[in-house]
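Bumping with the actual sequence this time:
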Amino acid sequence: MIGPAVSLARGLLQPRRDLLAEKGLKVLLADADPKRARLVEAGLGTLGAAATTVRPRPGEPLLDAVARERPDVVIVDMARPDRDALDDLRLLARDDPRPVVMFVDREDPGFMEAAIEAGVSSYNVVGATLPDVKPIVAAAVAMFRRHARIEAELRRAETALRERRLVDRAKALLMRRRKLGEPEAHRWLQRRAMDRGRRVAEVAAELLAAAGEAEGESRDAD
């Protein structure tokens, strides 16, 4: 089954040569066909000490195998596109994300899009001979890391925006109730935060909650 791959990750991102050498990667190889699994495992063997291959137990769901083995990378190898198999990958991406490489033996653009939406990092249509596994795995790891960094940066930006809105609402409350100017209201929040060993945003949220304005803040954050 395994052959030259059409890999999204390989085309989009050139991995560093030492990516797999950073530490020994544990690779979970999920394939119901023992012959195909042996071919993929043989390809992984070219990585030498850079990879350790483990497999799910007979009949073990993918999510259970991931929870048990805690692999760095998951390789899913299937004889044909199987949309039912994407359910576990969606749950994996939601609850325990990690790089996922998928091999299929026939082209299906719709399934490819569904697989990527489910969290697959590298989608490969293969033929009759073994592809070079190392750049595929390395690119999947690099793609996953880049996506994780972007998501973390987005979460930090969203948190900062929410906190800024909290602080602005709290300052407006102080300005209205205590007849303070904006700089004085900000300094009031800063002093209160220092006295209590809290962050300014936390003090602002407590002030708004005590004033019964938490609901209004939530509407603004949306």
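The tokens above came from a reply further down the thread. The radius of gyration is 25 Å.
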